[in-house]
Amino acid sequence: MEKRMNDTIELRINQQDQKIYLAGYLAINEFSEILMDKDGRRFREKINSGCFSRKLESMGEKFPLLLVNHNYENQIPVESFEYEECGNRLRILYTLPLIEEVMDKLKDLNEAKLSFGFTVLKEIKFPKKKDVDGIDYERIVTDFDTLREISILRNKIPAYSQTKAFTGDEETVKKAVAKAEISEKRKELCKLYQVEVDRYKEFINRKRRNELFGFGANVKISMN
Length: 224
Prior knowledge:
By secondary structure, the chain is α+β, with helices and mostly antiparallel strands. It has helices spanning 51-58, 100-106, 170-213; strands at residues 2-5, 11-12, 19-27, 35-36, 42-47, 65-68, 71-75, 80-86, 89-97, 113-127, 137-153, 164-168. The protein has one domain (2-169): Serine Protease, Human Cytomegalovirus Protease, Chain A, CATH 3.20.16. The chain contains 3 helices and 12 strands; from the N terminus they run E-E-E-E-E-H-E-E-E-E-H-E-E-E-H. The protein starts with a strand and ends in an 11-residue tail after the last helix. Keywords: Hydrolase, Protease, Viral release from host cell.
């Protein structure tokens, strides 16, 4: 079974509700950090659209267990599980009983990570791109064979830095997830904007070089 890790958890509880909620999202169609396979080869991974939702739908009333650090002896009791695949995120919501066991396992997890354990049914492997260093190939997971568990992690390095989760009362966690998604989208837009700015700067620099050295020259720098 493979395990993928990742981000922040906050704990706010409504004592009258007698329940704790864990809400968050997992990344879809976005590359992981650099991982290593069993043969020592380095790769980046992406979970394809529909991969999560198809597997969860096929599981019927069953759902991924909620663990701490992928340890089946450290399973957190769950009352219900909900999910929604939306764009490049799988939103999840676990309803947990407000009992001492749950409180103990969620204690001091302000800087925790979120992960998931799975086995692959179908995948596609590609040679690395020229502009990507430090990897041997890229892998696209198109279908899970199993999606056994989602884990809250302690002191683990995240595989997908885009993933976040929050715990507390239902209203608080849903607001936290919405706020986190907006923040992620802003970061993505900023990255895209910076890419376009860099491209424009490079275009201007090439144009200036051509204008500077172009007089009487038979060869000019490509503007493409």
